[in-house]
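Hi support team,

I submitted a single chain yesterday and got back a structure, but I'm not sure I'm reading the token output correctly. Could someone confirm the output below corresponds to the sequence I sent? I've pasted both exactly as they appear in my results page.

Thanks,
R.
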Amino acid sequence: MKHDNQFQFARSQYLDQVMLLQAQIDDFSYSKHAHEEYSFGVTLAGRQDFFSSGAFHRSLPGNIIVFNPGEVHDGHSGTNDALRYRMVYIHPGQLEPMLMAAGVKSSRDFQITDNLIHDSLLRRHILNLAELIEQQDNKLQQECELYQLAARVAQRYGQYSPDRIVQRVDRLLLKARDYIHDNLMTEISLDDISQQASLSKYHFLRMFRQQYGITPHQYIINCRINKAREALEQGSCLEDIVFDCGFSDLSHLNRRFKPIYGMTPRQYQQHFSGK
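Hi R., thanks for writing in. Yes, this is the structure output for that exact sequence:
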């Protein structure tokens, strides 16, 4: 039986760092990974099974899937039927100012508390924005639709206040996270990172895994993959990307990249170049 896994990416020409994924999956399974962006998806057909935030979820047609930046998840088709879905990726730099404009007082590092949502209005805004990106309709339309999406999120989650435990973890880990991003291309040790959080190495490791669902090393690899993806979209030389993003060789990058994006880095770059 022939399996048909399709992944079509489109970047908005008008909204910086906003991207659409249209996917059809038969037998492909996403490895654990995380994105730098907020991810808003709608299941169109089949059933989308995934693990995130310490729980297993099943998304049926019409359901909304949401991942916060850095939120680790996997995913696969939950039935023998093909899974189809659309996912819009929105960088915090785009979404957070609109959340603030919509009434969220503290929009930096804003967290949406649900991974699986039933909301017809939010679903409509996600699909409308996806269609506008696909058709590359004018900037004003895309900005208005993005604001309406943000406004609906603010309406549902604007009063969210992290509990004491989350606040405590964030205080200790944000410096460590920023240190990782500032030193992404250097060889940093667990000792180096844990010192930024003023925690013992193993206490830090336990808290980091509890917060992000992966180890600091896996987090670094994920950040490097995100950096490689951006360079691929910009048309950079593949051989340069391999070493500029901290991978030992192209095979190493391929092994890390394909389980997340469903294609090799070269195929991903060709997709954006139209070749």
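A quick pointer for reading it: The chain is about 45% helix and 20% strand. Let us know if anything else looks off.

Best,
Support desk
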